[in-house]
Amino acid sequence: xxxxxxxxxxxxxxxxxxxxxxxxxxxxxxxxxxxxxxxxxxxxxxxxxxxxxxxxxxxxxxxxxxxxxxxxxxxxxxxxxxxxxxxxxxxxxxxxxxxxxxxxxxxxxxxxxxxxxxxxxxxxxxxxxxxxxxxxxxxxxxxxxxxxxxxxxxxxxxxxxxxxxxxxxxxxxxxxxxxxxxxxxxxxxxxxxxxxxxxxxxxxxxxxxxxxxxxxxxxxxxxxxxxxxxxxxxxxxxxxxxxxxxxxxxxxxxxxxxxxxxxxxxxxxxxxxxxxxxxxxxxxxxxxxxxxxxxxxxxxxxxxxxxxxxxxxxxxxxxxxxxxxxxxxxxxxxxxxxxxxxxxxxxxxxxxxxxxxxxxxxxxxxxxxxxxxxxxxxxxxxxxxxxxxxxxxxxxxxxxxxxxxxxxxxxxxxxxxxxxxxxxxxxxxxxxxxxxxxxxxxxxxxxxxxxxxxxxxxxxxxxxxxxxxxxxxxxxxxxxxxxxxxxxxxxxxxxxxxx
Length: 499
Prior knowledge:
Distance between the termini: 32 Å
Helix content: over 70%
């Protein structure tokens, strides 16, 4: 089998693996929604292309090729961030092929090449092709328009290789986020040092060179692409092989016993399990750190800037800052426990005690945004009543909705292995619906209440609703437990299959 045949075979395997996934059936509904949303996004990108074309056609200070390339840093940053929603790295796909009698780098090379022609890269043609047709083709000719599209696409492909490299490194250590921040920050450096025109002119010159088929520009771009390919080839194989063979340094760590939690009995033991799981397991620790950093960042942004001071934003982000941790972590409830679900099912009502412990833990985390948001009270943006009512509403109705996912989540989340774990990308319709309800329902309720009540009465009502649901926690958590037990065999089978 030559390299081309191997490439085609691996592409076929990727498509088959999606159909063989235990969560394939539950993904069908979500896929229909995602396809619908993708269709709207494509139309929106074409609209953006037409808008940019109209601006370029009316301008006398720059050519059409220069205009879109002058904005290239913004496109590349957006492209880098959006890839986190779904693009896997080759290391996440290569595990089944490591023991096959093929050259050790052949699979990695095939997956990297496959990532170059992925729809994630081709999606940008929805902007460049209509733009080239409306602004370049008739004024500068076919070859200039083609050079513009090819040049822009090469920049997107380089960006995809840059994403692949740093996504793999970030999976290992969070501090690798520094690298993409520096790289994309360097693109905006002329703007920071001098002015926007300096940055615009720098990238506009690159666009003009590629559009005119200047051989030096294309050689430079291809050299950068080959360099990223070779680096990715080594990095992807190194981390995949290291994680699969378990070659990692073992370090002695101090054991924390958390004796103060023993007073809470069995629930305290599960509280200790939750805390220690976050401290000791890489994936859970990273998710917790990300959600906490995002909570702190958004709280500070709301407290010390006026960027979200309009009526809708002030309500939305006041709610959102209290549900970030729940929206990112609690919505995946029971996923980590899928690794040892058989042990949890040994004793009666273990799961119920676990649910109580998780609920108390995430309620305690609400103190963090509350304390950080206190400066907004002194600045007059919010009142103590508003913050307390939102904290109570998050701990009550919002968390009760998110914890319903304990019934429906049935895909195991790996505790440490990330690159070669199974089921690394999941589309769960119920989780999506729960997150949307948690984000927008509180804002909708506040808006409706304010049609009939003044501000104080509105937030008193929210506080009362939150306290009522909190007071009834034993009832609705037992209901979740009973429904979970009714589906336990189906869920346990899926947990085992996705380990």
